[in-house]
Structure formats: C-alpha cells, structure tokens
Amino acid sequence: MEVESGVIGGVILDDSAVFSDEDNNINNNNNNLILNSLLRKLRYSALSTAISYDDALSSPKVDLLKSTATLYSMHCFSLDNEEAIEQIKRDVKGVILYVVSIHKKDLFLKQLIPNLQIAFLNVEGANVYENSNIICINKLEELPLTICRVNRKAMGNDVVTIGYIMKPSREEDFAKRGAFPLYPTRDGLMFLPLTFELPLAPQLQEVDIILHKATDEIISIDMTGTAEFANRITFTRGMQELKRYMDHPPDCCVIDQLDKIYPVLDRLKIQQTLLGLQDLNAPGRQIIRGPHFLKVNDFRDPSLDQKLSGAKLSLPSIVKPQVACGVAHAHNMEYVDHSSTLYKFYVLGDKVFNAVKKSTPNAHILMKLCGDDELKPLVFDSLKSLPTADEKQLCGDNIDHGLVTEAAKWLARNLGLTIFGFDVVIQEGSRDHVIVDVNYLPSFKEVPEGVAIPAFWDAIKKKLESKRTT
C-alpha cells in the first residue's frame, strides 16, 4: 500500500516539550513518568523520532537530553546543526511533527525542513490556530492520539486503526517486536495506545478495532457469590468504562469480546470445555485431552482420597486456584510425566505456530525435592519458580502436529477467540497429548517476529473483515 502524502512519519520533540514549564526539570516525577511512557511508545512506533534543543539551553540540560535520547535510541541535535537537520530530512518519510511549548514560538526550524507541521503544547481550550497548519494540544499524553487523527485524515478509508490497552510491560513486549506501529503498515494498519488518563470517548472515535488484555485491569473476583461469573469481576474504573462501550459497540470490532474471555479465566470451566476434545479422538491415533481434574472445596474433606481416585488423580498433583488471574477456590489438576518438554502453541487467526521449551522434571524428581521423610507441597506462583529439568533430561519426543492443529481449530471454534495460546505435554508411556493451559492474547515471543507479527496483523484484519460481512 502506498502511504499518502500528509501522513506523519517523524516526530521532533523540542526541549520545551521535554522539560516541564512549571519547574523546567525533566526529573519532575509526574512529568518523567509521562515522558518515559511516551518515548517508549515512540521508540517502537515505526516513526522517526528526535529531540531538539537550542544553544541557549544549559549544558547540564543538554547532557540530560542527550542521555535520554540515547536511552530510547533517538537522535538529539541542536537547531543550529544543519547537518543533523539534513539527516532528519533524509530519514523521515512523510510529514514531520514538531512538538514545542506554546511559550516558545520563535520557530525557525520550519524554514529549514519542508513538510513540517507544528504542534503547540500546553494549549488549553479550543484550537486557537484553526485556520493554520498548526495543531494545538494540551498534554503530552495526547500526542499519539493527535498523530493518529492526522494520519487517519490523510489516509482516509485506506487505514484501519487498532486501539489497544494492556499493562505497560506487556505493551513493551509486543511493541519492541514491531507489533504496534503508529505509522501505517503496508496493509494499512495503525495502532493507537489507549489510555485511561484521557477521556475515552474521543479516543474510541478514532479506532476501528479494540484489542485488549482485560485481565490486566482486574481488581478482584468474588468466588463466594452465586451471580454469573461476569458479574463477580471488579475491573478498574477505566476498564469499566471501556467495557460499557464494548458491550454495546456501534461499529467497532473487539478482539475479543469479554464473554469469550471469561471461560479462559475460570480453570474449572476451561477444563470442562477440554472434555469435548474426545470428539477428535479416533482408533489408531494419539489421544488429545485435558488433564484429569477435580474441584476441591475443602482439603479437610475425609472423602478427598476417594474423590481424587475417582477423578483419576494421585500424588503428585498440581493445585491451582480456580480463577486463572487471582486467588480463589482450589483446583486440583493431574501432574503428567512429560519428559520435561513443554510444547507451546499459538493461534493467530487461521495460523498456528508452536515452540518447544524445557519444562519441569518428572514426578519422581519432584518427590525427591519434597524430602525423604515427609511429603511437603512445593509452593509456587508461576511455572517460572518451579525447578526445570537438566539439559540431559530434556527429551525431544515428536508431537503429532496434525492432531494438535486440529485441536487448535476446535478450540478456536468452541471458545470464539481470535488470538490465544495453549500448552501441550506428551505423557510418558501412553503418549497422550495433554493440553494443560489455555490463555488469550499471549505474547507469542517464542515465535520469530518475521512470521509472528505479519500473522498477528493478518488475524486482526481478517477479524474486522469478518465482522463487516456479517
């Protein structure tokens, strides 16, 4: 796709936009948090980004700007450096947005760089330059939204905008692989980071698709009540507002609707869903299934041994909370001896990828870790804190990719999810393929970005196309 003229391809932050007007100090805590968040987004946005300063700025502040620019892999140059300006002109495709405080209007840079658009910062109220080529914004946090608006206007119907929301660490995992460009991709996709620090409605007016990791915004889940699972979840205030919009979207596509997410959050529900995998099993082929499981309400239950036996469970077993993202009633799950090999599968639309990882040791090794005289529980909050097998123990059992791919498609149909992942282990002896975990919107970081990111984008675009045709 040919990118239209008028699309912002680069951003220059003037020193007046970097230092706060109140104390002219980049180290102001609030200003620092906002600036760092913005610079992280710009770094991986596919926009050329630089920081400029004039020669009147003090040496300590220039040094601070340069170190900040280096940290985020950006250019930092003096406005008097014509060579640096020429380099900027060569690097940037499209319009350059120059962000400067309204209190600093002596802009001669516009005469040196063609295709420059000015954005005045710290302008409250209406746009006082409505009839000019100047944009006015109030806060630095508004910059991604401003860029999105300009680019949508320039691209017209040739661009699809995805507004995404997730915790910063997860966002960075995606963004540093190039998954969230603010500059339109060849397929016409553009990603806007949504923020609850700004009014949500104006942001949502600019997006065609909402991509979310709602579990990052869960405060608590009440497992004691009898209400529907959805009504027992308490989200942050911002997510509650977004949820109201997603519950009644006029034209917006959501990846994925919350009612499709809830079953994955309830381990008991997902295990019950996995029971349906038996429909895929046939004589002469490997069995694919979920682990044997039992919901335990009270570990002091005198009949617990019989219940475990009836559920085909024995020690060692894995005890997990029923809710996949918080502490709740216990959920007892089979521990499968699997030659210390974990197969991670990722479903991105109609494409399935997998990776092999070293996993926990077989049961007899775990039993040794508990001690010879007494069986004690191994307490952990994630698989990362459990022991892993030595390299000598790592076994490369061949997995039936056709069978697991068939299961992936079955899960996609039954769960209604666009992007999700699941883990498979192969049981020693029986060679049963056991799906031990299912999660939505994983980072799929084990898959090379050269194939994963295009598949990620393709899944998003096809989801929108599917909605528009139904």
From TrEMBL:
One of its GO terms (biological process) is inositol trisphosphate metabolic process. InterPro entries: Inositol_tetrakis-P_1-kinase, InsP(3)kin_ATP-grasp. Its EC number is 2.7.1.159. PANTHER family: INOSITOL-TETRAKISPHOSPHATE 1-KINASE. GO terms for cellular component: cytoplasm. Keywords: ATP-binding, Kinase, Magnesium, Metal-binding, Nucleotide-binding, Transferase. It comes from the Eukaryota. The keyword Oxidoreductase does not apply. Monomer. Residues 334-449 form the Inositol 1,3,4-trisphosphate 5/6-kinase ATP-grasp domain. The keyword Calcium does not apply. One of its GO terms (molecular function) is magnesium ion binding. Its cofactor is Mg(2+). Belongs to the ITPK1 family. This is inositol-1,3,4-trisphosphate 5/6-kinase.
